[in-house]
Design a protein that fits this description.
23 helices; 622 residues
Length: 622
């Protein structure tokens, strides 16, 4: 491809980031490189992850779903001398907006070549101020065609290895890789960087690479397991730091990186979490490890009842009694109950693991198990997990031992002290008040489950609305986590309300793109099909791109329909014995109480949200 001056606009003055994206997309469209609808793919991509590259450069580009709108691989450049806020006030302004239109096979190559050029701060600053479009054209000619040459390592250099990874596994993963490779070679070092991207690991580090390495750099915004680097000097940072100044990252790694000990609690704690962390992140770590136990347990119990109903008729509902012990149905049932008994300690253990690494697992699990035994339930397990995690992390920093005894700390001292202190705290301090609270909550929910009263109706509506409010965010996860945990107390109606309400938003988006085509662009109508499939699978996040683009209209429409679904699910007396599975769980006998009415609740809420979308959203021109 050729970069011509017609694809470059100097001195642009867009009002904000959205207008800048529209202008650079218009450059591509006016030059016949993309269809006009490609801009919607750029907005969808920006909603997934900020495309600010660093050094005052942003690189908006389309999603894989919008690549069919590309007519010819190309880049367009919008120069904004006054700068544009690209990171919601959290970073430097963007002065050079480089719009990318490239097919799947060419996309990453273009990104990597681009980062090579604008990764030089002086070059990026010059291009942001130049008044000659030809200057930009010449500087970016390597991006438009051909690989740029990289400086080679000198014989006297050291061996630098590393891993890069970002949440979506696309742009920043490979830009950080490129920046580290260029930076290391410029410093005279040999280098090899593994990428953990959206298509899996590439350029994988071998045991020989690790053995030879003088330093290891993990530039990642996601969890990367560092266990294979035990005994090596290990430095951790984010992808943006590597992209912005790789040479500084490498020099800092050589001067400051400590020796990584696989069994060090401090190292495990620092390496167990991505750059962004906090209470919510630790809770979600515990929930993510807990969910397989709840899903497997719920479905096994449902299957046990299903087989029992086939084999023993109506008497099969008593499959838990000794008279049926040893039968195939009973074994399935008790296997499910065993999974349920495990999920509470797993929740507490992996909350602690997220905070303090492996030494926190035993104190967290034991504390959560005690919480369950004394009636504190999942609330007690959550408290036990946080107590264990922060306690072990504190002890790891506080306890100082001679070097020859340091290995005893993560294997013996921290688990022993942590488990003893947390267990005693649960027995003497935390357990009883939390147990009383859980007993009161369980008793109230049981009365609502049986009475199906107005309070339960409101609770179902509240849970349903929460599922659609942020679609996978903290509010959604709070409703889902509480509902999931209540299954262990044989309270099933909250789970039914939350799953049904979580399916409604993407299903409504799908229906609205079919019924109200003039409210959606061509690309949105295509994306609506995928949202429908995600909705059937109980993946609420399928509606996020639509909500991100038009939040003031889309989110209220989705919240209203999900609240209706949740409220109707409770009013119909529906209960769900498995916390996932979407529409597919409806076909498992006894997995859902009042399955036909449950389907009606989902359809009703979907219809309400669909109608609201048709009313709230404005017509579009394309």
């Amino acid at each position: 491809m050729q970069l011509t001056t017609s694809l470059i606009r100097l001195g642009a003055t867009p009002r904000d980031k959205n207008e800048a994206i529209r202008q650079v997309a218009a450059l591509l469209a006016e030059n016949g490189k993309v269809a006009p609808e490609y801009v919607e793919g750029m907005f969808a991509r920006e909603a997934q992850e900020n495309t600010y590259l660093g050094n005052g450069v942003a690189i908006p580009h389309g999603t894989p779903q919008s690549r069919h709108l590309i007519k010819e691989t190309a880049i367009a450049v919008l120069q904004v001398p006054g700068g544009i806020d690209w990171e919601d006030g959290e970073g430097e302004p963007a002065y050079l907006i480089v719009g990318i239109a490239a097919s799947d096979n060419e996309h990453l190559a273009v990104l990597k070549r681009l980062s090579t050029v604008v990764g030089d701060e002086a070059v990026a600053e010059r291009l942001a101020k130049t008044t000659d479009a030809e200057d930009i054209r010449r500087a970016l000619s390597d991006v438009a065609g051909g690989e740029s040459a990289a400086p080679q390592a000198t014989a006297s250099g050291k061996y630098v290895i590393g891993i890069t990874s970002c949440p979506t596994g696309v742009a920043h993963t490979y830009m950080a890789q490129e920046a580290l490779e260029i930076g290391a070679r410029a410093l005279g070092h040999e280098v090899k960087i593994e990428t953990q991207g959206s298509v899996g690991a590439a350029n994988v580090l071998t045991p020989q690479d690790i053995a030879r390495a003088d330093v290891v750099i993990i530039a990642a915004d996601t969890n990367v397991d560092p266990a294979r680097f035990a005994g090596k000097r290990l430095y951790r940072t984010g992808t943006k730091a590597a992209i912005n100044d790789a040479a500084k990252v490498i020099n800092t790694a050589f001067s400051e990186a400590p020796i990584f000990a696989a069994d060090s609690a401090a190292a495990a704690a620092s390496d167990a979490k991505p750059e962004r962390s906090g209470v919510y992140k630790h809770l979600m770590t515990g929930v993510s490890y807990m969910l397989p136990f709840v899903v497997a347990g719920g479905l096994l119990i449902a299957l046990g009842f299903a087989f029992a109903s086939f084999q023993f008729g109506e008497k099969g509902i008593f499959i838990y009694e000794d008279a049926y012990k040893g039968t195939f149905a009973a074994n399935l049932f008790w296997a499910g109950k065993a999974a349920f008994e495990l999920f509470i300690p797993v929740l507490g253990g992996y909350i602690a693991y997220s905070i303090a690494g492996r030494p926190g697992i035993a104190p967290g699990m034991v504390g959560a198990l005690i919480a369950n035994q004394i009636g504190a339930g999942f609330l007690g397990a959550i408290l036990a997990g946080f107590m264990a995690g922060y306690l072990v992390a504190f002890l790891a920093k506080t306890i100082k031992l001679p070097r020859e005894l340091e290995s005893l700390k993560p294997m013996i001292i921290l688990p022993l002290l942590g488990t003893a202190i947390v267990a005693l705290m649960m027995y003497y301090v935390v357990g009883k008040p939390v147990g009383s609270l859980m007993a009161a909550l369980t008793a109230w929910l049981e009365t609502q489950q049986n009475a199906k009263g107005f309070a339960a109706f409101l609770l179902g509506g509240l849970l349903g609305g929460m599922m659609a409010l942020d679609m996978g965010g903290p509010v959604n996860k709070a409703a889902y986590t509480v509902s999931t945990a209540l299954i262990g107390s044989n309270i099933f109606f909250p789970m039914a309300a939350t799953m049904a309400a979580g399916m409604t938003p993407p299903l409504a988006i799908f229906c609205a793109t079919l019924l109200f085509k003039n409210r959606f662009t061509v690309e949105e109508r295509e994306a609506g099909k995928a949202a429908g499939i995600l909705g059937l699978s109980f993946i609420t996040e399928g509606a996020i791109p639509f909500a991100a683009k038009d939040p003031l209209r889309v989110i209220p429409a989705l919240v209203i329909g999900s609240a209706v679904t949740g409220a109707l699910s409770v009013a119909f007396g529906c209960g769900l014995h498995a916390p996932h599975g979407g529409v597919f769980v409806l076909f498992i006998p006894n997995a859902v109480d009042h399955v036909l009415l449950y389907a009606v609740a989902i359809l009703a809420g979907t219809a309400v949200s669909t109608a609201c979308l048709g009313v709230f959203k404005k017509r579009v021109s394309a």
